[in-house]
Design brief:
With 248 residues, this protein is an alpha/beta fold. The protein is built from ten helices and nine strands. It is globular and about 50 Å long.
């Protein structure tokens, strides 16, 4: 990264940062001054109703979009810089691997681009963990939606990223696979920001919760603090729904 690119960006103890971020699509504001700071090593769930700005937030942090106002940074670097890209593993919602390549070819290609150490062993490990062995030579376009999601997951973490951004990571996966993926992700030494509508997944994958609505933050805290917002035995989903409905 040259000096011009680095101006205004310094190394930060925060792995994920957004300060006063605005993003619009035409006349529709997706984010309206969103601010968040996630220290390295934390695991945070990004929760909100449809249209709250969750996917837009992840795309900005992954460097796929630029904010209209405010700033975003990955460990102090611009998200679209090489320094940030090598740190990030990003799984979009409804991810689509290269459909004309086989499962193994996808893994070999992305792994090589990511300069993954011990790539051959890493590929074998991910294929076995996600039970893709019988499909490793199959063209991706012929996979079921669930197996395509398994491959997308593998591609997002093949380089063992320091910072993981995931949008509904367990979509389309059967229960046994969900359990394997949850166990694998919780064992990773990484900073996580996970967008999901399913609170049981959020509780198992993350320790903290950031709720956004109408493009801005409305609540942030630990999962235990979130549960403390209501009476005993109240479902956590009810608490989240109330917090969202309080926003006008």
């Amino acid at each position: 990264m040259n000096m011009e690119e680095n101006q205004g960006f310094q190394f930060s103890s925060y792995c994920i940062s957004a300060d006063g971020v605005w993003k619009s699509y035409g006349h529709q504001d997706a984010l309206k001054g969103l601010t968040l700071h996630i220290p390295c090593g934390e695991r945070v769930a990004l929760i909100g109703p449809n249209g709250a700005g969750k996917s837009t937030t992840l795309k900005l942090l992954a460097g796929l979009l630029k904010p209209d106002g405010g700033s975003v940074a990955i460990k102090g670097y611009p998200p679209n810089s090489y320094d940030a890209k090598k740190l990030i593993g990003y799984l979009p919602e409804d991810a689509s691997p290269y459909l004309t390549l086989s499962v193994r070819e996808n893994l070999e290609y992305i792994g090589a681009i990511r300069n993954t150490p011990g790539l051959a062993d890493r590929i074998e490990s991910l294929i076995d963990m996600l039970e893709l062995r019988e499909f490793e030579k199959a063209r991706t376009s012929r996979l079921s939606r669930g197996n395509r999601q398994k491959l997308a997951l593998a591609l997002s973490i093949i380089h063992d990223p320091e910072i993981v951004l995931m949008d509904e990571p367990l979509n389309y996966l059967d229960i046994p696979t969900q359990e394997k993926v949850i166990r694998f992700l919780t064992e990773m030494k990484a900073t996580f920001l996970v967008s999901t509508h399913i609170m049981s997944i959020a509780e198992r994958l993350t320790d903290r919760c950031l709720i956004i609505s109408h493009g801005n933050r409305i609540w942030e805290g630990s999962m235990s603090e979130l549960r403390a917002e209501a009476a005993k035995d109240t479902p956590i989903e009810s608490i989240v729904a109330r917090l969202m409905s309080d926003v006008h």
